[in-house]
Input
Amino acid sequence: MRRYDERVALVTAAGQGIGKAVAERIAAEGGSVVITDLDGDRAEAVASEIGEQALAIRVDVTSRDDIDEAVAAAIERFGRLDLLVNNAGGCVVTSRPERTTVDEWHRQLDVTLISAAQCIQAALPHLLAVRGNVVTISSVNALGAFGNVEYSAAKAGQQSMTQNFASRYGSSGVRFNVVAPGTIRTPNWDNQPGTLEKFKAMYPLGRVGEPEDIAAAVAFLGSADASWITGLTLPVEGGALLGPTLLDLSPSGPAG
Ligand code: NAD
Output
């Protein structure tokens, strides 16, 4: 299926992991993609692997100047912008809420929530022109208490922001949705060997997610197949939010 023929997407933090998989999926479905990342070499590597449909730009999402330059470059090269994927915004603060400083709170909110708002603001005039849409990558941490206070709060803020943008711009035909991933096998986990194997137990579907699981959900929400869906947070989490089965924990074991 080529749902992105003649469509243009801009993906933040697309140099590796989920963002890279999203960019590859959109390109595989015929789209042109603007690969942005703080690490310009990573962005270049992904873009050169995709080929002519891709443009690489070094962007720090906490810099409004960088964001504006990337949007302008997208328009100059491809002439339009149909989809913004707010993927940047990982966990940058080790959660210790009793001692987290104001500066640390700002760093987490800057890269996760305020950056997404700034990207939306910069992209909006172009999205309005083509009735485009925004998909923001949140986390199951926004939907349950998995332990990281600052990251979870910032991710939950993305959801509320999305709902309010969706309501405000629905009549203009611009949609806003969120994908909330569970644990995904990306380089983010490379410095914690064995963690993903342990986390498998949290997932009723028996595995952690792959970047391609998230890319498939983003490609759906960003496409015309989802043209009547806005303000949604779609968990893509192998059933993690279902919680433990109490019967499995009872001394007599699961009821037959
Ligand atoms: P990753 O750690 O594999 O890659 C992050 C990328 O972001 C890197 O290429 C890095 O250079 C880039 N980056 C860092 N700071 C940046 C900045 N200021 N501006 C632009 N780019 C910047 O990331 P990932 O695991 O693929 O996660 C991507 C998104 O998915 C994040 O928002 C994360 O919170 C979310 N998420 C990830 C998981 C997971 O288990 N991996 C789970 C839930 C949600």
User: Anything to note?
Assistant: The longest strand covers residues 175-181. The helical segments are 17-28, 40-50, 64-78, 102-130, 149-169, 195-199, 211-221, 246-249.
